[in-house]
Amino acid sequence: MENGELIELAQRLDTLRLEHRDLDDAIHALQTNPYVDQLQMKRLKRRKLQLKDAIARIESELIPDLNA
Fold it and tell me: HSE on the CB side for 36, CA within 13 Å?
């Protein structure tokens, strides 16, 4: 993998981690509300899981191939 690709992946990873943290904060704020919109909560949690999967994929790509 080229240096430019590594930098691009690292930047994408930072962006995804930030969005994941923001969603975590939003979910926590919604949970403190007694009149929480369950559909909105479900959508936020689903998006958070998608971000977690994307983060894991990118982290896996950034690990150097030991067979190379």
Answer: 16
- Give the Cα separation of 51 and 14 in Å (integer): 11
Domain ranges (residues) in the chain: 3-62
DSSP 19-48: HHHHHHHHHHHHHT-TT--HHHHHHHHHHH
Q: Specify whether the CB–CB gap between 43 and 23 falls below 8 A.
A: no
- Degrees (nearest 5) of the Cα angle 24, 16, 44? 35
Each residue's pLDDT tens digit, 6-46: 899 999 999 999 999 999 999 999 999 889 899 999 999 99
Would you state the pLDDT for residue 62? Answer: 86
